[in-house]
Amino acid sequence: MYPRLKIDIPKIKHNAKVLRELCQNNGIEPMVVTKVHCAHPGITKAMVEVGYTMLADSRVENLKVLKSLAPGVKTVLLRLPMVSEINSVIEFADISLNSELKTLRALSSEAVKANKVHEVIIMVDLGDLREGVLPEDLESVVKEVLSMQNLAIAGIGVNLTCYGGVIPDDNNLGRLVELAKLIETKFNISLKYISGGNSSSLYKLIDNTLPKGITNLRLGEAVVLGRETAYGEKIENTYEDAFLLEAQIIELKEKDSVPTGKIGMDAFGNNPSFIDKGKMKRAIVAIGRQDVRVEGLTPVDAGVEIIGASSDHLILDVTGASRALEVGTVIGFRVDYGALLSLMTSKYVEKISE
User: Fold this and answer.
1) Which of 46, 217, 223, 282 could form an SS bridge with 13, CB 3.0 to 4.6 Å?
2) What residues contact 206, with CB distance under 8 A and at least 6 apart?
3) 195 neighbors 216 (Cβ within 8 angstroms)
4) What are the residue boundaries of the Alanine racemase N-terminal domain, all occurrences included (predicted)?
5) Which residue segments constitute the domains of the chain, with CATH numbers given?
6) SS3 (DSSP) at 349
């Protein structure tokens, strides 16, 4: 079946092992994030075999899968819980990231009903402007959470780069460590996790400049694609090519490079522009924006260029293709994080494990 995504699990497992060892050698217990591959069973089992003790995801539906795939391994809800899903959070997540007292009260109430102790990591906004309490409000939030039944404060954390693009540095990560020490001293508690961000914090770990006191990182893209995400650099001794998208040519013709007629909006409300290259050999492959973030694809074949896409057609300039092509030929593409996320989510793309 095409389109299909080929997954090289041994390469991903190698990356996971390299990164886990890097973290452990520096006193850090990492969480491995499964959301980009939607808790794929083969990939998840490889993470557990490598020794990861915490599996993290932003969707409760995936945590439910993780519980069945890896009993005994801690599950972590990355996205702040919705009030409407509190029952499921308590059932399927051992730990959740939080910033809202209303949600925390609901978690406490449900945990009491379920006779469970639920661990929480209080997120702090240190400039990226996604989730998190403001630093000046942290003490009051911690004080109230400590009074809630069946909740245990496991740590504090920060998210960086995902929304605002703010790079982890000595200032924001150092501030997180300072806040953790303040909370531990003021309330006479010990925090298991000082969670210093995601794969974008790895560059400081690699450079041996990560502030002392960070005890946890949440690793997703680095594991599956072998890249730190602050600057997009390849991590030494890891693979970047563990995924390959394959799609089949359904039309191959020589056509003009510029449409004929008055140009209006395309199917997605954009006003497209075109470069006149004269006649070109154009191929259409059977995949489109419904399945993949097209901008995150890179053709494997030399001389093949992506020139556009609609919801279910990807259009290529194959004039300079390095091999003979015909209708039915399969074209391969490397994927970035955004493309991988959409492909793994699409039910129309078959997943093949190697």
Assistant:
1) 46
2) 22, 228, 235, 236
3) yes
4) 7-224
5) 9-225 (3.20.20.10), 243-353 (no CATH)
6) coil
Least confident of 27-41, 258-272, 277-291, 336-350: 258-272
Q: Which residues contact 178 (CB under 8 A, 6 or more apart)?
A: none
Q: What is the DSSP string of 175-198?
A: HHHHHHHHHHHHHT---SEEE--S
Q: Tell me the pairing of strands 314-317 and 279-285.
A: antiparallel
Please state whether the predicted TM-score (pTM) of the whole model is above 0.90: yes
Stated length of the chain: 354
pLDDT of residue 25: 97
Q: How far apart are CA 284 and CA 287, in angstroms?
A: 9
Average per-residue pLDDT in the chain? 97
Alpha carbons within 13 angstroms on the beta-carbon side of residue 8 total 17
Catalytic pick among 11, 13, 35, 262: 35
Per-residue tokens: 165: 């693009």
d(CA 169, CA 172): 6
pLDDT at 156 over 90: yes
One-letter amino acid at 348 equals Y
Do 333 and 292 meet the contact criterion of CB atoms below 8 Å apart? no
| Calpha distance 14→205 (Å, rounded) | 19
Q: Residue 338 has which token pair?
A: 């955004």
Query: Could you confirm whether 279 is annotated as catalytic?
Result: no
Long-range pairs, 40-44, Cβ under 8 A, ≥24: 40/7, 40/344, 40/351, 40/353, 41/65, 41/69, 42/7, 42/9, 42/353, 43/7, 43/9, 43/12, 43/224, 44/69, 44/70
pLDDT at 276 over 90: no
| Cα–Cα distance measured from residue 168 to residue 185, given in angstroms and rounded to the nearest whole number | 25
Above 90 in pLDDT, residue 271? no
Q: Is the pLDDT of residue 267 over 90?
A: no
| Alpha-carbon span 9 to 3, nearest angstrom | 19
Residue 115 corresponds to which tokens in the numbers above? 């006779």
Give the residue from 335, 352, 354 showing the smallest Cα distance to 291: 335
